[in-house]
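Thanks for the sequence, V.! I ran Nucleoside-diphosphate sugar epimerase right away. Repeating your input here for the record:
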Amino acid sequence: MSSRGLGMKLKLSRAYIAFAHDVVMAASSFLASLYLRLGDAMWSMWSNGDLLVGTALFVAVAIPVFLSLRLYRGVWRYASTNDMAGLLRASTLTILVFTVVLFLVNRLETVPRSVLIINWFVLLTLLGGPRFFYRSLKDRRQAQRAFNSEAIPALLVGAGDEAELFIRATRSADAEYRAVGLVSERGARVGRNIHGIDVLGSIDELDAVVEQLKGRGQAPQRLIITDHRLDGAIVRELFDAADRLGMVLGRIPRLTDLKDGLGDEIPIRPIAVEDLLGRPQQALDRSGLEELIRGRRVMVTGAGGSIGSELVRQIAAFAPERLVLFEACEFNLYSIDQELSARPDAPQVIPLLGDVRDAGRVGQAMAEHRPDLVFHAAALKHVPMVEHNPEEGLLTNAVGTRIVADACIEAGTALMVQISTDKAVNPTNVMGASKRVAEMYAQALDLAAGQRPGGTRFVTVRFGNVLGSTGSVVPLFQRQLATGGPITVTHPDMTRYFMTVREAVELVLHASQFGARNADYRGKIFVLDMGEPVRIVDLARQMIRLAGLRPDRDIAITFTGLRPGEKLFEEIFHGAEPPVATGQPGLLVATPRAVDAEALGRAIDELRQSCRSRQVEMALGILRRLVPEYKPNGQAPVAPALADASSGGDEAR
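Predicted structure:
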């Protein structure tokens, strides 16, 4: 007989056994319920045959019910709540049908009505009990084999659904890990257990928990985070504790990030720098974002960059009618276009090569596609590069923003979102000052739009450094680590605000829909809550330790001094624009000085002429007058070139 035929025969024999079991349990439940209700008096029913007839009648009702619900097809080894629901339906239906039949036969005169209620409980118990006992027995045997294997003992952080899934996935004999205990952020769960694995203490009691496990001969070698709600501060504490206690810290991925779904083994990924700096994910208004984007035509400038590409990914998930990717770099445009094309739910994608400094190309793209929403992320952002090439930074960041904004108005765009940076606050470099000019122009146009109905809205969003973006400090440190160091830090006291690109873009979208709906925020700048600033030298030390090395011993840290245009401390608010809460998670708002849009437009045109004629000093002079708080190399601020539109010509704040 072939192996396939043998397997089919074995399956059928098991199904027959399961069916026979259920029939026997049905008969037993009827007899047991009678005995529980009548005691020894039930035997008096045997003389007139009522007991035999009643049992046979009950079984005759149960058999077609069990067959119709296919109880025999369930695999006892994997009995679960779904199986229990099927048993519940079978028991209920059997009792209901039997009650009707018994009423038709003898008006329920020979069987006490309470027997039927008792029978329901007994039948459910006898059908479900053996199934779950069998699963429990198999689980115990499998756990015993796993315990005796060479699996790595792991202490889990978190006592929720993810921990339960991990424990179940490591029950097989060939599992890589073996859970020996859990610690919970919430002390209320201490003393309880999940699949026999005890919650031994809270995170604050980690040292004592490890000592307790060592005393049992179950010293953990891995500390595995299963709770994704833990913020970066707690992860840093766990990272330090694991290092101190001789464990390696890891975490399970989000289940939504598992491309192949949940299998027999959940992969453990090492801790990344994003984990140490991350914050709990904000609960965002997804319905509002869907209302903003679904069915709309959307354009993203700089669509291949770090922020632009993540904007494209997240916008695509909200089903826009059309997604126009405007990008100057051919390779970046090709990469994000290919990524989107591979998605089964991708909207219509239009990849356009173009430079925001080219007014003709921008105008052509806007006129052809008539976007409802424009996210302007195109920019030159690397401080040293823009310091060495100031006219290029000014043409892209300041002049390019004017070109895109004016084209939005001409095309009848409903909303343009200007992506800004914390370097625009009290700038000490050309990049920051050029982004401040871009902020001012978007702000001025938004205020002007309030004077005419149906005008294009302009929402500006300002935030700090994005982890892992091109040219940021994290990839630089990673390259230096790969070559054996040293890691170069400009100054021991330098701090920066950090945010993951995913979180930054989520909040940008949130600010966009919130600002577009609320006219009270015209002319204001939304500022993302960046948390606490991080010392760059501390970040360097953490990255060295993440690589399994020791700072100052295996990898040296050297200080190179501040480069032109760099600041020790970044700010997200100007001194004269105090932060104001919006009532929205992760969003603050600033009210900087406002200028007249037409006057600012003329000044930007002068800036364009001087940059294109390569008159750099003239261009920088215009920049200083436009942004009086711009202080390169410690220079004192100069008088503002434009009157404050909101205060009748007072000096810039």
